[in-house]
Amino acid sequence: MNGLYPLKFKPQYFDKIWGGQKIKTVLGKDFGNLPNCGESWEISGVEGNVSVVANGFLAGNNLEEVIEIYMGDLIGEKNYEKFGVEFPLLIKFIDANSDLSIQVHPDDKIAKERHNAYGKTEMWYVIDAGPGAKLNSGFNRKLTKAEYLEYFNAGKILDILSFEEVKKGDVFFIPAGRVHAIGARILVAEIQQTSDITYRIFDFNRVDENGNGRELHTELALDAIKFESKDSYKTQYEHKINETVELESCKYFTTNLLEMDKEVEKDFYEIDTFVIYMCIEGSVILKYKGISENIKQGETILVPAAISSFILQPLSETAKLLEVYIK
Q1: Distance from C-alpha of 80 to C-alpha of 88, rounded to nearest angstrom
Q2: pTM of the model
Q3: Which of 71, 104, 195, 220 has its CA 20 to 30 A from that of 112?
Q4: Rounded average pLDDT over 101-123
């Protein structure tokens, strides 16, 4: 196992025009003297923002350097073959104090052609939402490109979007090509492909202190949008205690929910993958081979592929974790 252990990373905090205070007030994270915090990047392989290890003897090394040393032992053999030293997922907390722009992300094909990058399929788990808070996922009707452009050019794009009121525990899967936006007063955990490519479609006519609007990517977005429609975009799942419940599984990631009030044993021997835990409520202790690591609300930890079995034990009355890996 080469001395590998569960890794914590230094969060990277980003001040955003729409950001708020919930990353501090709800998740207990200290984003220093930023006026607000829109995003906390928990684990990132994005170029220029690669996460740095915060615990143990590897502290101070970045994720790319650690993968270079430990390769498949850290991320799994198949993942290493496919992605090399670029970590394949970006794990974030996002706090929208006001509405995010309406946007879309390209798929792998478009992203490769235009940006030599991966596309961006993602999902959200709602950690906190104010009364009546809404988000946008997809269209509220099936459209052609021409119909979409009619609404867009008339300044009526909001009329064709599907908005849904959300509450704590709601889950939304956002495949590349689906228009979407997190609404005001919503805090989410976001799991996504390693990509920072966003095409902004509409920004509610906002301007900065100099009166300038943010750049829109109208033409780029047009080719990336999938003009399909669904009756409901929310993911349905069962609530169970001390059992792993699958929320979403796609070729890019699998995300489960684990709500627990007693010790749970985990065994990943069959699937050769790293596992990430995001603690969204309470606190737990992760134990294996006489070593233990605490994870409290707002913290994220990466369990290397070489550690295939371990125990999770709640330190609070109940604890809630998101469990993320690649099948």
Answers
A1: 9
A2: 0.96
A3: 71
A4: 96
Radius of gyration for the chain, computed over Cα atoms and rounded to the nearest angstrom: 20
User: What was the pLDDT predicted at 1?
Assistant: 47
Mean pLDDT for the chain overall? 96
- pLDDT score for 310: 97
DSSP secondary-structure letter at 67?
A: H
Q: Which pair of tokens denotes residue 180?
A: 């979407």
d(CA 256, CA 273): 14
What's the CA gap between 215 and 224, in Å, rounded?
A: 17
Distance CA 172, CA 147 (A): 26
Question: Using 50, 70 and 90 to split pLDDT, how confident is the model at 212?
Answer: confident
Q: Which residues pair with 325 in a beta bridge?
A: 254
List, as one string, the DSSP characters of 143-212. Answer: --HHHHHHHHHTT-GGGGEEEEE--TT-EEEE-TT--EEPPTTEEEEEEEES----EEEE-TT-B-TTSP
On the CB side of 101, CA atoms within 13 Å amount to 21
Cβ-Cβ contacts under 8 Å for 169 (sequence gap 6 or more): 125, 126, 239
Which has the closest alpha carbon to 87: 311, 259, 310, 300? 300
Dist CA 102 CA 158 (whole Å):
9
Structural domains of the chain in order of their starting residue, each with its CATH number: 12-224 (2.60.120.10), 244-325 (2.60.120.10)
What count of other Cβ atoms lies within 10 Å of the Cβ of residue 214?
11
In whole angstroms, give the CA distance from residue 152 to residue 138.
15
